Structure to design on (455 residues):
């Protein structure tokens, strides 16, 4: 084990886990009364997903859940982050709960607890019920009210046993990729719409915070997971430094400011060149309902080139240049562990979250399986080790870090990239659904084991 000292830097109760989300792993899209989601429709639309792939089967986790939980236990994981599919719970997004859908998550939670694995549940990881989309989706304020009912249903059923909750996963992606540039479901291309959707997602978060608080165990920790992406200047010209601030508002402030400060960044709608979001009385108070912890999904940074008189916002590929000496994952994302330390320190200084949990961090590489029981992925182990080290550096500077969840437990449906990008610590041979623990999975298991042994 290469990092004995590193493991000892973390407190005994630090949560070491892995993450997944419902549509990316479950499959079984027509089973037990599940309704359709915007991702079923989007993936079925030609040209939207790599090779027309869909999540219809994915990792078949819906049927293989007990063995997947046993696999996690064999890795010695302390925690598991999963998401609940809203269309399994309310097939049309409103009305009575589908008990078969709730039963699945009930069994999952019990299986985790039976193996001493702490469950962390995300209410929304992008699979909006299609019926709600047909009524306007996140452009319709009523969707936030429907989300409140859904949160209450789930809170009542699982809230006695699930100690960690996230309302939304990455609302930036749901709003901007879904409504702004159309790379994700529902595939709309309209910057103003992204801004409106973002506001309604935040309202849904605020409602869900309150409904969960009223229904789940008193010691439960409630939060939201944001994908945050620190921006760095490529040169020191005033134009570039201004562009860095603009990108930072777009990437980070758009969701951080309303949640922690109760208002949007002042310049945001000007940056977008759109009207301000549709804020009604009481919205910002609801959105800034105090959270117990901030979930941070960190993968990379943005390196901002010179923007002469043009706005970098909304043209994400044009906002980033490559560091020629950089290393990149198969997603084309630069591997930049110091960005995680910087981000943690800045968040702590600027927003003072009570706790931070890294709810996602990981890398896609073109892993190869030899048909036996080995998949060698040294770059992924290095990626994890470097980011865990970066977290330790933040921890010793006083950042209140409470957990780390590697993305992902296993290879899965990577949205518009289909199955072409493998993020798992466990390899999935999709034709046979065989799972093979990668070398990085073994590395992570050994690291956790060592951390346990040190306390
Ligand atoms: O697979 C996604 C996940 O659903 C959300 N965060 C980023 C991951 C990798 O792209």
């Amino acid at each position: 084990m290469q990092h004995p000292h590193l493991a000892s830097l973390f407190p005994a109760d630090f949560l070491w886990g892995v993450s997944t989300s419902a549509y990316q792993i479950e499959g079984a899209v027509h089973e037990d009364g599940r309704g359709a989601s915007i991702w079923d429709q989007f993936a079925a639309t030609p040209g939207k997903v790599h090779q027309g792939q869909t999540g219809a089967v994915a990792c078949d986790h819906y049927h293989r859940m007990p063995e997947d939980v046993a696999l996690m236990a064999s890795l010695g994981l302390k925690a598991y982050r999963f998401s609940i599919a809203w269309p399994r719970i309310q097939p049309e997004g409103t009305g009575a709960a589908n008990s078969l859908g709730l039963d699945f998550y009930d069994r999952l939670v019990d299986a985790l607890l039976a193996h001493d694995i702490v469950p962390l549940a995300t209410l929304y990881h992008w699979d909006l019920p299609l019926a709600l989309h047909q009524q306007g989706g996140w452009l319709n304020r009523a969707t936030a009210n429907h989300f409140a009912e859904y949160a209450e249903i789930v809170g009542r059923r699982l809230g006695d046993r699930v100690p960690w909750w996230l309302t939304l996963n990455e609302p930036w992606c749901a709003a901007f990729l879904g409504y702004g540039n159309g790379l994700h479901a529902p595939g709309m291309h309209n910057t103003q719409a992204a801004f409106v959707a973002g506001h309604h997602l935040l309202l849904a978060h605020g409602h869900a915070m309150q409904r969960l608080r009223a229904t789940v165990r008193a010691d439960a920790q409630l939060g939201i997971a944001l994908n945050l992406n620190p921006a760095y200047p490529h040169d020191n010209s005033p134009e570039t430094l201004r562009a860095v601030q603009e990108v930072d508002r777009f990437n980070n402030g758009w969701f951080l400011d309303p949640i922690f400060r109760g208002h949007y960044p002042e310049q945001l709608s000007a940056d977008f060149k759109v009207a301000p979001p549709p804020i009604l009385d009481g919205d910002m108070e609801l959105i800034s309902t105090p959270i117990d912890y901030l979930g941070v999904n960190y993968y990379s940074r943005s390196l901002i080139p010179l923007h002469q008189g043009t706005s970098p916002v909304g043209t994400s590929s044009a906002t980033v240049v490559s560091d020629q000496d950089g290393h990149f994952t198969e997603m084309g994302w630069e591997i930049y562990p110091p960005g995680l330390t910087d981000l943690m320190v800045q968040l702590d200084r600027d927003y003072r979250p009570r706790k931070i949990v890294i709810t996602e961090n990981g890398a896609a590489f073109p892993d190869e399986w030899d048909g036996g029981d080995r998949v060698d992925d040294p770059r992924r182990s290095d990626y994890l080790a470097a980011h865990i080290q970066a977290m330790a550096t933040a921890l010793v500077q006083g950042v209140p870090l409470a957990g780390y969840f590697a993305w992902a437990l296993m290879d899965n449906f990577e949205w518009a990239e289909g199955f072409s990008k493998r993020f798992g610590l466990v390899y999935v041979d999709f034709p046979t659904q065989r799972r093979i623990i990668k070398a990085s999975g073994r590395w992570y298991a050994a690291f956790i084991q060592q951390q346990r042994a040190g306390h």
User: Anything to note?
Assistant: Residues 21, 24, 170, 297, 360, 407, 414, 423 surround 5-hydroxymethyl-3,4-dihydroxypiperidine (CB under 6 Å). The longest helix spans residues 191-215. DSSP finds 17 helices and twelve strands in the chain.
